[in-house]
Amino acid sequence: MVFPIQERTHLSIPEISRANVQYSTEPKTEAGKHYAYLNAVCNGLTNQHDPAEAACEKTSKALAALSLYRQRLSRQFERTVTQLREIQKARLDREAPEISGLQNTERKGVL
Question: In which residue ranges of the chain is pLDDT below 70?
Fold first, then answer.
């Protein structure tokens, strides 16, 4: 379908747009209006604030913060475990001669 206004090429773009608006119709039924509203919401063409979208954004930010805290705690836990193993090894190295001395005296029947 060719609109009559498109045949006149001497018009400027804004004039052509204003003329084409005459051929545009808005939805008449409630279902059509709702569909147009949903289309506008999906494409971000409305200024209306969607409560579900706000809740989703808030939840997303909270999950990001939790992820950050989980990473920090995980790194701290790994450092603590490494430190514990170093302390345990130092203690074992320090007490190993005493333990081996006790085992030798048991074999000799001293205890």
Answer: 1-9, 41-50, 103-111
